[in-house]
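We now fix the convention by which a protein and its fold are recorded. The integers have meaning only within a learned vocabulary of local backbone shapes. A record is reproduced here so that you can trace the correspondence yourselves:
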Amino acid sequence: MDNGSEFVRLEEFINNLLAKYKLAREKCITLEAMIEERDAECEKLKATIEELRSERNLVGERVTGLIDHIEQWEKELETGEFTGEDSLAKLQGKLFQNDQAAVK
């Protein structure tokens, strides 16, 4: 009878190990799915970052262009190249001429 109880104990131990293995396997599958989701989210965020960097560079270039136009305008005003309202209007039109082409 001792052998019978030992077999029962061994069966319970093996069943317990199998149950724990099954649980660990399910957790592993769940974690792998979470990792895949996070990897996809990471890739999406990297793409967004790259897009924002590109946009920031474009905005920086446009701002630099506007500053260059303003500086040129100020130089032309200082040299007295333009005088009177008509000339000033022409200068202001020239100032924004390149920006309107960039918008189109």
Remarks:
- The longest helix spans residues 2-78.
- The helical segments are 2-78, 84-103.
